[in-house]
Amino acid sequence: MGGLNGRDRAGQRSLLAVLVAIAFAGLGGCGGGDEQDADSAQAAALATAEAGPVAPAAVDATARVRPMFHALPVLLPEPAPAGEVSAQALGGPQQIVLDGVDSRIDTKRLTPSRFEARRAEVRAAAASGIVRPADTTVATVYDPDEIRRAYRLPKLASADAAAKGAGQTIYIVVAGRHSTAFADLNVFARRFGLPGCSGGSTVAPGTRLPLAAASATGGCSLLVANVDASGQLLSQVPTGDDEWGMETALDLQWAHAMAPMARLVLIQAASETLADMLPAVELANRMGAGVVSMSWGAEEASWATSLQSSFKGRGMNYVAAVGDDGTQSLWPAVTPEVLAVGGTTLSYDGVNPRRENVWSGSGGGTSLYFSRPSYQLAVKTQGSALGGRGTADVSFNADPYTGHQVYHEGQWLALGGTSAGTPQWAGILAVANAQRQRRGWGALSTTHISLYGLMGSPSFSDITSGANGSCRGCTAAVGYDHPSGIGTPNVDVLLTRLVPATAPNRPPVFGSLKATGRVKSALSFTVPVSDPDGDAITLGVEGALPKGMSFNAASRSFSWPKPAAGSHSVALTALDAKGNKARGTVVFSIGQANRKPSLPSASWSAFAGRPFEATVAGTDPDGDALSYTLTKAPAGMSISADGVVRWARPTIGKFTVSVKASDAYGASVSKKIKLKVVAPPSAPVVDGAAMSATAGKKWSFKVSARDANGDKLRFTVSGAPAGLSIDSKGKLAWKKPLAGTHAFTVTASDPGGLTGTARMTLTVR
Q1: 344: β partners
Q2: Residue 512: Cβ-neighbour burial (10 angstroms; 0-12, 13-18, 19+)
Q3: Which residues are catalytic (predicted)?
Q4: How many distinct structural domains can be found in the chain?
Q5: Is residue 89 part of a domain?
Q6: Is 636 marked as binding a ligand?
Q7: What is the pLDDT of residues 654-692, one digit of tens each?
Q8: Do both 674 and 690 map to the same domain?
Q9: How far is 152 from 353, CA to CA, in rounded Å?
Q10: What pTM does this model have?
């Protein structure tokens, strides 16, 4: 839409920021840096990836995220209660006049306790001549009804429960404690005619998760969950913090303004460190389906890619602020599964359609670590494709000089920042899910695909003026740009597209699109793709294929007789019979020439008639998985794919078994293994005997024993009179026998531990 006349206030800076800007004026940077330089860095990162993925850096658990709110340095007059017509209401949204000092105060994370300190900074700068305060500046502050009308949400008086988000859960993730959150929320609700919220209780440790589903008829409720670094619920409340307290008030109150019958769950992490904030998000995943609002962020680093799985909860949508420092790429907004919210400056008089331009403080940029997700493959900035995951995705009012009414600890404040748009987008998604639930459909599961499919349609207001820097993609333009994404929502139209009258046709779905191969080894890959509605699919490729590769659309397969080393990407489109399209990218990772596996030498033995099992364990110099087959074996013998050889009933004899180990690229090795099968072991047999001897005269006797397996036997005697012994060959001996009848036992043992015994009797006269 057309730009605004007048001064955009996002760029207000403290004295320190002004001095830094002067020092770097000659560098020509913007926000977080010139995107042309960022694109060069992106290209370098991608070039590195061609040789193999770069391992993500270890996550710095001490890294901190910061809240993204801005606040005007003034306390607002108490707004008129809902239903009353105030002087301000007669003239549209409330106007606040800031003098030359207040209009120069840095609004970022400004709390009332720091108003005077910031004023002193500006006065000191003015006195030194570094800053010359401007004349008075007029700010506009919007209440919930005005924002709802500006963005075309349903009128609350006539809206049904689903249009108010009933039956849905919005998770507000923050750091630290805001002890008055529940009371402040209800003061805000009463003042602006919104439904009040019940509850305010703490989710106790040991509570069974997921939570029971939110009530579709019971109205708003608030639960508070305190969480530690392991993701466990705590009974104690985290330490309080002024900045996070204001962020909490903003997030709760404006999520409620958009979805006033949704359940709110305030998740309070122990601190703003990454080690505490990520488990808070994961707790939301375990609590059950809903929308997670994250009005905070940290500069992305390579560790961000290792945390992506935390934003893939079943039935979950994630929304995050892109930041308030111009061109930048913040985590978690940069995560492809997260809806990244940028910022605009809003002009709305309560009568005419809203007008917006880019708020110059809005974050947004190109990631150096996440590649383009499928929903951004067709997105371009100034005619060029994105060099990586681009943020923002969407936008909302964020300029603190066109801010939002917020009630915090007895004071009315004007707050903005991309923090403000984040909970409001969470509320809009909650309303869409409530309306889908009413029709018996599931929650939005491909939110990005759905929204990007509406780019340029009446569902969105395309922001075409303003900038958050001077780099490519930082200036608002028709279509996509970094500070505003695909635009701000016209919610009435958007809901009709997200919740159509009939069940929507769903796009095809790709499975894993990763293929691996080796140089000099022919490669084939069949694309896994299906349609959730059972529609016929036409699969095609976009762009040129690597040299020598071919694609068969009928069989949905690639063939590459002679792959080239490196990483190669091929873009795909899957079109169903109803015109719904999905995009994906196959990545072919081709390693060096394949090498043969090896098998160790071995010999086996078995007993006839008894089950035989042995494991073949080959090794592959490339680390490839191996499969096994038998090329020669006795009847009845088999081998599993993972190398376990089995023979249920071996027969006596000597055999040669040939085993073949193969990798996935056709290299193989064979080994011959000798197998000897003998009769099963049986116990020795000892013959009993009745013997005689002469008293006092040396005596000996050879015990008769035998072993069917031909094993060498070992003999022992027990119960014999003193002096009577037996040697290893079974010979009994007694040098001076004593008169009498003597009974004893002879035992024969084979090497396997089997034994045979016999009772012997010796009569001595």
Answers
A1: 358, 397
A2: exposed
A3: 247 (charge relay system), 251 (charge relay system), 419 (charge relay system)
A4: 4
A5: no
A6: no
A7: 999 999 999 988 899 999 999 999 988 889 999 999 999
A8: no
A9: 9
A10: 0.65
Residue 78 domain flag: no
User: What kind and span of H or E run contains 283?
Assistant: helix 274-287
Mean pLDDT of the chain: 89
Q: Are 460 and 344 contacting, i.e. CB atoms less than 8 angstroms apart?
A: no
The strand ranges marked E within 160-303 are 169-175, 198-202, 221-227, 233-234, 263-269, 290-294, 296-299
Task: Please indicate if the annotation marks 479 as binding a ligand.
Answer: yes
Out of 243, 247, 282, 399, pick the active-site residue.
247
* Neighbouring C-beta atoms of residue 656, cutoff 10 Å: 11
Residue with tokens 């590649």: 371
**Which of 419, 459, 461, 662 does the annotation list as catalytic?**
419
- The CATH number of whichever domain residue 572 belongs to comes to 2.60.40.10
Query: Annotated catalytic residue: which of 251, 282, 620, 663?
Result: 251
The answer to whether residues 192 and 149 touch, using CB atoms and an 8 Å cutoff, is no
Domain residue limits at 613: 603-678
Two structure tokens written together for 519: 């140089």
Annotation marks residue 419 as catalytic? yes
Residue 453 amino acid letter: G
DSSP 409: T
Are the C-beta atoms of 220 and 196 separated by less than 8 Å? yes
The response to whether 143 counts as a known ligand-binding position is no
C-alpha–C-alpha distance, residues 709 and 677, integer Å: 12
Q: Was 52 annotated as part of a binding site?
A: no
Active site residue 247: yes
Coil/strand/helix, residue 607: strand
Do 583 and 536 fall into the same domain?
A: yes
Taking every pair of Cα atoms in the chain, the longest distance, rounded to a whole number of angstroms, is 139
Beta strand 581-591 with 514-518: parallel, antiparallel or unpaired?
parallel
